[in-house]
Amino acid sequence: MTAVTLGPEGTYSHRATRALDDDVVFRQSVTDIVAAVAAGEFDRGVIPIENSIEGSVTESQDALAEYDVAVVREIVTPIRHALLAQGPNFDTIASHSQALAQCRSYLESEYPDATLEAVSSTAQGVEYARENPSVAGIAHPATAGDDLEVLAADIQDQTSNATRFFALAPASERSEAGGKTSLVVYPNANYPGLLLELLEPFADRDINLSRVESRPSGERLGDYVFHMDVDAGLYEERTQEALDDLEALAERGWVRRLGSYDLEHVVD
Ligand SMILES: O=C(O)C(=O)Cc1ccccc1
């Protein structure tokens, strides 16, 4: 099987993809990855979803609301960032926006004058550092290879830094089995108590919600899509009943079942 993930080689997404044992190909953006899996070009896609310091990867959420794909696995990996460069004389630090944000305090105290440049991935920033002595990257230390120095290790703002990734498959492979389920709900409505009503079907059936996030629908200001993760599988009757209620509440919009899966931790 072939999995597509964020490249080039050595990104955290690539590290997470190793859990799948598939051949790996790379794309430059999360949206491209989700679109390619939805189009059936690859068996699997791996994208970052949320980080324990910085929160949701909004591009991933928006792509899951836009393209019809299945979530078939969840992979949680620890993230330990290093500062890498040809030497200490750099003026620009290039990395993925999530990595720059996860190291914000460190960068403000150690490199207050550096220019921070958000690039498509951590490993892409390292490529720029390899080409240019005035650029440093923030990435996994293994990306340093033989030609870059690890100037500082473990520079993330909290020692405990973990990222949750989703393994995606074409929609036809959606599973009802597993202890967790991810949903996207667009109620296309706005009235007092709407959010409460959307949560009640789960509370009434004693189903724990492990995440609720709102994202702008893009239709109009103040209109939202809700991303929900619940600790129950789609195979369970209580989940099916809760979803029937949710569908009725979202009759003017839609409910997308991304699928059920089990939690998996991969130590790097
Ligand atoms: O750029 C990468 O290496 C990615 O895979 C995205 C990312 C960035 C920072 C933390 C986790 C994932």
From TrEMBL:
Per UniProt, the keywords (alphabetical) are: Amino-acid biosynthesis, Aromatic amino acid biosynthesis, Lyase, Phenylalanine biosynthesis
A single GO BP term for this record reads: L-phenylalanine biosynthetic process
The protein's Enzyme Commission number? 4.2.1.51
Tell me the pathway.
Amino-acid biosynthesis
Q: Got a GO cellular component term for this one?
A: cytoplasm
InterPro entries named among the record's database cross-references = ACT-like_dom_sf, ACT_dom, Preph_deHydtase, Preph_deHydtase_CS
Domain of life the protein comes from: Archaea
Question: Where are the membrane-spanning stretches?
Answer: none
* Residues covered by the Prephenate dehydratase domain: 2-170
Instruction: State a single Gene Ontology molecular function.
Output: prephenate dehydratase activity
Q: Which Pfam families match?
A: ACT, PDT
Can you say what this protein is called? Prephenate dehydratase
